[in-house]
Specification:
Strand order of the largest sheet: 3-2-1-4-5-6
Order of helices and strands: HHEHEHEHEHEHEHH
Largest sheet: 6 strands, parallel
Structural class: alpha/beta
Helix content: 25-40%
């Protein structure tokens, strides 16, 4: 079956674009049919609990700082400052990342010199489904445009997602519990791997720690 994609730039979420295949077939898509759902077993939830000792469900924030595409990653010093503020406020913070050499190096740089009993580093220790169970048990997930924010949407966990050069209209978390943060740069979303191909995205780097911190506070208050 063939159907037309938008001709002059997309102004809809990717989910809606894909649902056009069903609309082409004559099906009416009701709002309640559009939910994103990821089902997990009790064994998977229990395994995730065992990885984080003394941290109760819905009593911690998951911070996933990394992305496979590094130009989507926020500044290391911003993450450090944010983590320190959250710890000072009494929050339990669980750090996650893929067991990739580069991502693990970024996590090491972020956490260098930060030691706190409420900081739990699970980077590199979780399978994709263990990550999903951990996010499902969190009170909030914070990260950039990457898979974990979509997992948060699928397990109904509130999230704060930072977008730089990638398109938030098309790729924002499919959830009414998501808060998307962007800059006012007129050149975004450009889709480039950093400004001028330099691997650093000014639009993402310019999102301040205070902006992210305020969004977190609002999300926790709304929840």
């Amino acid at each position: 079956m063939r159907y037309h994609l938008p001709r002059f730039g997309n102004t809809r979420h990717t989910v809606e674009v894909h649902l056009d295949a069903l609309r082409k077939a004559g099906l009416i898509i009701k709002p309640q049919d559009k939910s994103l759902i990821l089902e997990l077993s009790e064994q998977e939830y229990q395994a995730a609990r065992q990885l984080r000792s003394n941290v109760d469900d819905k009593n911690f924030i998951v911070l996933h700082p990394t992305s496979r595409w590094l130009f989507k990653t926020w500044r290391i010093e911003h993450y450090r400052s944010l983590i320190q503020q959250l710890l000072a406020d009494g929050h339990q913070v669980v750090i996650t990342a893929a067991p990739d050499k580069v991502e693990m190096g970024l996590i090491k740089g972020i956490l260098d010199g930060i030691s706190h009993p409420s900081l739990h580093n699970l980077a590199g220790q979780l399978s994709l489904r263990s990550l999903a169970a951990t996010i499902a048990q969190a009170k909030l997930m914070v990260g950039v445009d990457s898979v974990p924010m979509h997992i948060a949407a699928a397990v109904d966990t509130p999230c704060v997602a930072l977008f730089g050069p990638s398109g938030d209209i098309e790729w924002a978390p499919w959830s009414d519990k998501a808060r998307v943060l962007t800059s006012n740069h007129t050149c975004r979303p450009c889709g480039y791997d950093g400004c001028g191909g330099g691997k650093i995205s000014e639009c993402l780097a310019s999102i301040s720690v205070d902006t992210v911190y305020q969004a977190i506070q609002e999300q926790l208050t709304d929840d």
